[in-house]
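2024-03-11 09:14:02 DEBUG pipeline.ingest accepted 1 chain
2024-03-11 09:14:02 DEBUG pipeline.ingest length=153
2024-03-11 09:14:03 DEBUG pipeline.predict start
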Amino acid sequence: MVWKPHVTVAAIIERDQRFLLVEEETPNGLQFNQPAGHFEENEDLISAVKREVIEETAWQFEPTELISVQLWRRNPEALTFLRFCFTGDCHNHNPDLALDTGIVATHWLTRNEVAAQQHRLRSPLVLLSIDEYLSGQRYPLSLIKSFLDINNA
C-alpha cells in the first residue's frame, strides 16, 4: 500500500471581526471547524474550496488569497493531512440549501469565542489558521498552478 496524505481545503471567512465556522458531528462528538473538506478527483484547489464552503454553509465563496499550506498529523498512528487554507469573500447566502450530512449549524464567532471552544475544535489548525489570518499572513492565488487534462485542452 502506498502512503499518501489526505489533501484538504479550508476557508477563513471573516465578517465584522467574526469568523464563519461549522459545527459538525464527528467521532469525538460535536466539534467546530472552518468550512473545509477533501480535495476531489478532477477539480482544482480553488474549485474544491468553493464547493466545500457552499456545501457546508450555503454561502457562495470567492477565494482571494492563500493563508497557508499546513501539514498535520495528530499522532504517529493517525492520518496525515495536507491542508490548503484560503481566505476570501462570501456572498449570496441560500438558507434553503441543505447542508452536508453531519453539519449541524453554522456560526459567526469572534477569535476569542473560538479560543474559548478549544476543547471542541476539530484540530489545532482551526485557531492557528485564524491567528495566521489575523497576523496578515497572505499569499497570492497565483502561487497555485493547476495543469489538469493539459493534453486534452
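2024-03-11 09:14:41 DEBUG pipeline.report The first strand starts at residue 6 and ends at 12.
2024-03-11 09:14:41 DEBUG pipeline.predict end
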